[in-house]
Amino acid sequence: YMYGYLHAKDRLFQMDYTRRLASGTVSELVGPAGIATDIQLRTIGFERAALRSYQAASTQTKEILQAYTNGVNAWLDENVLPIEYSNLEITKVKPWRPVDSLAIAKLVAFQLSNDLQELDWTVAIGTMQQVGAAAGFDGTKLFMDDLYRSAPPDDRVTVPGFLESIGGVQPKVDNNSPTNKSASLDTSKFTQYSTKDIGMVENILAIWKDNPDLDKLRNDGSKDIGSNTWAVSGANTVSGYPLVANDPHLALDMPSVFYPVHLYAGVDDKVDFNAAGVGFPGAPVIAQGCNEKLCWGSTVHPVDETDFYFEDIRVNLFGLPAFTVYEGKEEPIQYLFQVYYANQIGDGVVNNLENQKIGYGAGGITYIVKRRNNGPILQVDSANNRAISMQY
């Protein structure tokens, strides 16, 4: 409860903006300029995922989220909104919900693992295929052997005697062995991408690269982030206790990504809870910190968690996707109808939200492919019965 109260007191605008990013309602805060962001993030569906997680959460988790929510809303009930809202002509915000905290957690996790490099590679291999077809060479093979070369691992090490020093055995390597030579790929089974397919991929990349909010959600080797964690066994320390050094640095921002906190609950000598560290405004967690018995940290292993699929589709009489085709069978696409509102800043009317009347083909419908873990369709080419779906 107190954690939520303090977050609202110190970081309400940051919390509100972040939950709006996660729910695809930024334009209700910043005006029509946020519509493009809202369409993309509502399509991906962090709030949808948060609702499913909340339904599956334990009773204890729900109680923690509710207590935090009560603290946030208590501050909202007792205070006027901070100064950031005044120029936006906003005098009230929606009450906090437990799902808002989960949606923020989904957004943060996505930001730390979202990788669009598959799309970049698809454009590259598709372009080389097209050029190869025109110039008389195998574009797929050139891409796989040169730009994105793949070869069997080499089990040799560069430091003589290293394996023996740690109890290992240095294998004898036969440089003429087939296992130590680059394998020849059978490119006949690779997908051949059409110009239309490449165009859809390029459209997705352009949307993300041209939007500052979306571009910040890409984790593709950015040099301004790079967490790390180190642990030392107690067998190697003077005290006999293990050591952990956690360096969870992210890009610098204002206000900062983290919120330092020390939470204590107890009466006299009876301590019920005592922990200190940092967490994310909007979520009732200490992501990195210590209690009276142990410390914990975290870092990000940038594994590939985002996959994109070309889908064969069938459209209805209105030209809207109605089915995907998988192994020759039609599978119905789920429709989620969307309405987008935008704050009318500068009209002198407070809390004035206006329906932006986004068309069905421009974001007014979110298309869900159940087989892709309820993933959305990001791009549609109705004329060629093709689409691109996303699974995260």
Automatic annotation (TrEMBL):
Q: How does it assemble?
A: Heterodimer of an alpha subunit and a beta subunit processed from the same precursor.
Listed name of the protein: Penicillin amidase
Q: Which domain of life is it from?
A: Bacteria
Gene3D superfamilies xref list: Glutamine Phosphoribosylpyrophosphate, subunit 1, domain 1, Penicillin Amidohydrolase, domain 1
What does the similarity note say? Belongs to the peptidase S45 family.
One GO MF term on file is: hydrolase activity, acting on carbon-nitrogen (but not peptide) bonds, in linear amides
GO BP terms in the entry = antibiotic biosynthetic process
